[in-house]
Amino acid sequence: TQLLEQSPQFLSIQEGENLTVYCNSSSVFSSLQWYRQEPGEGPVLLVTVVTGGEVKKLKRLTFQFGDARKDSSLHITAAQPGDTGLYLCAGAAGGNTGKLIFGQGTTLQVKP
Amino acid sequence: DTGVSQNPRHKITKRGQNVTFRCDPISEHNRLYWYRQTLGQGPEFLTYFQNEAQLEKSRLLSDRFSAERPKGSFSTLEIQRTEQGDSAMYLCASSWTGGFYEQYFGPGTRLTVT
Question: Do B43 and A88 count as a contact with CB atoms less than 8 A apart?
């Protein structure tokens, strides 16, 4: 069974601080997505990483895929209150189904 | 195209009643997925369609759950004889067959079974 574990589960920081969220597995994934979800809404796709060692930047967000494609991290620089939300990592399961295996999420609160 | 839409957004029902949810995917997408999310957890896969064919169902999908995508466009998810444990957010997503499995989610249907 493929599992993704995210850490930390909860993070409360002040505006302007930096943070890193981790997503780990013992399984290899062909690709990994990061989503952000607000209360009462569906997840919104932020980025997809597909190559081991790949780094992608989206403004103040930096995403990295581990060399072995088993883990990933999300780093936010100078967090802002608008970054508050639930961050989810999701890996594409084996085969050609495209179904996603999600981590349990990291709830981020950025205080002004 | 405005993205994936789901209706209703909220549904409150009494235990034992049947409920049906609808999902309209992004029009160019041929794959459609249903997930369930409970509080404090990530979404869990339920089932998916490629065009009108239902290709996989999770063991989470008991016999009380049925999903259809009759013309390869919109999909419905029906829950019969609802139980309190069915209370959750039901999410629909769509994607292309190719690419890297990026899925685009709708806003979800929040089900509360009383």
Answer: yes
Q: Which helix (H) or strand (E) holds B42?
A: none
The string of DSSP codes covering chain A is ----EEE-SEEEEETT--EEEEEE-SS--S-EEEEEE-TTS--EEEEEE-STT-EEEETTEEEEE-TTSSEEEEEESS--GGG-EEEEEEEEPSTT--PEEEP--EEEEEE-
Contact A100 B101 (CB under 8 A): yes
Q: What is the pLDDT of residue B97?
A: 77
Query: Using 50, 70 and 90 to split pLDDT, how confident is the model at A1?
Result: confident
Cβ proximity of A48 and B100 under 8 Å = yes
What is the per-residue pLDDT for A6? 97
Find the closest chain B residue to A87 by CA distance: B42
